[in-house]
Amino acid sequence: MTKPIHQYSSRIGQALSSPTRIRALNLLAQRAWSVKELAEELNESLALTSSHLKCLRACHLVSENKVGRAVHCRVTSQEVLQMLDSINRVAATHLPEMRELVADAQNDPHRLVVESLADFYRELSEDAFLLVDLRPRLEYRAGHIPRSVNFPSREFDRLDLRELRVGRPVVAYCRGPWCSMGIQGVQKLNAADVTASRLTAGIVEWRAQHLPLSTGTEN
Q1: Which domain holds residue 122?
Q2: What is the pTM of this model?
């Protein structure tokens, strides 16, 4: 006989059964998004995005608040972030298809191997490298790794990347291990003669470790 606790827990699994909803949660961990903004980023219709958010709200994985006429949503808690981080790690360990992606990622010449994010955070104060956030500006302002500067990957065509040739290595991060903006951004930096490595961890992984964020701008 199924116990109530199993029924309740299965609701979380059902909410996470959609790739779009998992991607939406990762985006909502970066900052609060309006439904319209999120639909555009997900390349989904407004109606379908609203339906996905309704499912996530029903399990209290996402909360919402009104800003003027717009409804903004974001993840509800530290536990949701840790769950997202755990899902990625379990998938990378147990799913053969995911293990292939991990193996390919390990061949990335720009990938920076970090054993401990806590140790990485302590090294930030030593100024041994310049930390660059490749995410869009709104995400950076909502919360970024301390001491990082914002050079959005999507704006490279109109940014002066020479500012990053500072005589010390550049370490860049984006939305997480599989973020195409991060992978392509670091490739573009190196093509522009900026010696850069890619920190595979993003804000989800960072926050899941209870590490601090800064807000606003530091550029």
Answers
A1: 108-208
A2: 0.91
